[in-house]
Amino acid sequence: MLFLFAKYLEHYFHGFHVFQYLTFRCIVAALTALCVSLMVGPWMIRWFSQYKIGQTIRTVGPQSHFSKAGTPTMGGALILIAVTLAMLLWSDLGNRYVWVVLFTTLGFGFIGWIDDYRKLLKKNSVGLKAREKIFWQSCIAMMSVTFLFFTAHYSAETQLVAPFFKDVVIQLGFFYLIFSYVVLIGTSNAVNLTDGLDGLAILPTVMIAAAFGIIAYVTGNIYLARYLFIPYIPGVGEVAVFCSAIVGAGLGFLWFNTYPAQIFMGDTGSLGLGAALGISAIVVRQEFLLFIMGGIFVAEAMSVILQVFYFKMTGGKRIFRMAPLHHHFEMKGWPEPRIIVRFWIITFILVLAGLATLKLR
């Protein structure tokens, strides 16, 4: 809204032209989301504490988690509010990508909110049944990717780009729908599985979102895209504002979520943020880079898949002491802060590696 207002005022005062610069709007979007998180966060924590909207702990989990029972949860709503407000203020609302990424993020976040609400209402850690969750995630994912597919104006919007190769692009055709669906569902649930320790999921999300903000800016700039031999997609640069808002909101949330956490994001945040990363990768056509930069999320998800498969195939044996992967290290006796920081460091390295592939072609 402020972007459109500034565009109108530009006719009377040339100084408002600064709002047309994407880099400037990325900065103010991040700062806006950060300020909203920092200002609303304390109020939300007090409100959740007052009405006893607190975390329930699984009895089969690590014993160190029992002390976290009652910690305010559903804090992901804080992130989603901050991101939405920043986007409404600073993004070009006439850009279709803005509405796709917002719809997807908020849609998955709402599913997470229902899941959290059921957990709190029934005072257990089950929430939505797996099939219910996948069904509603599938509905939102298919609506998003179908819209992107049928409103695509350029072949680059439905191509699969391979990292390290400047000339390897595959036109997906209708397979784009299936591939994008899998990316979106997989990323959302992978982030959800990772969100098990204080701050473990949010900072990797922030780092990956920052990287995709850079990639979105480059992809939407015809000169930079040609220089780096990546597909140029007009209008996709606006997604950089969205990614910047996630960075600001995520850092603001981390202020309260860092160990020992004052609030948890819950499925409201983890499903929504996972979907945000997934849809960002899809619109900039860099799904492989999401796989690289989100290596921690991939490892967490694969640890659960392998654990379940091996358990069923061997009649009760386990690969890991407990899944997801971060619980395995907890059961080995690693302190929670050590696991968190080391996972952060690994993500930082993977994000740099992913960004390096833009030049190594």
What is the number of E strands? 2
The rounded distance between the terminal residues' Cα atoms is: 39 Å
Helical proportion? Answer: 55-70%
Averaged pLDDT, please? 89
Order of helices and strands: HHHHHEEHHHHHHHHH
Strand order of the largest sheet: 1-2
Structural account:
The chain has 361 residues and is mainly α. It has a domain at 2-54 and 74-152 and 176-285. 66% of the residues lie in helices and 2% in strands. Strand 1 and strand 2 form a beta hairpin. The longest helix is centred in the N-terminal third of the chain and has 29 residues, at 22-50. The radius of gyration is 20 Å and the shape is globular. The model has no long low-confidence stretch (mean pLDDT 89).
Task: Provide keyphrases for this structure.
361 residues; mainly alpha; two-stranded antiparallel ribbon
What's the quick description here?
By secondary structure, the protein is mainly alpha-helical.
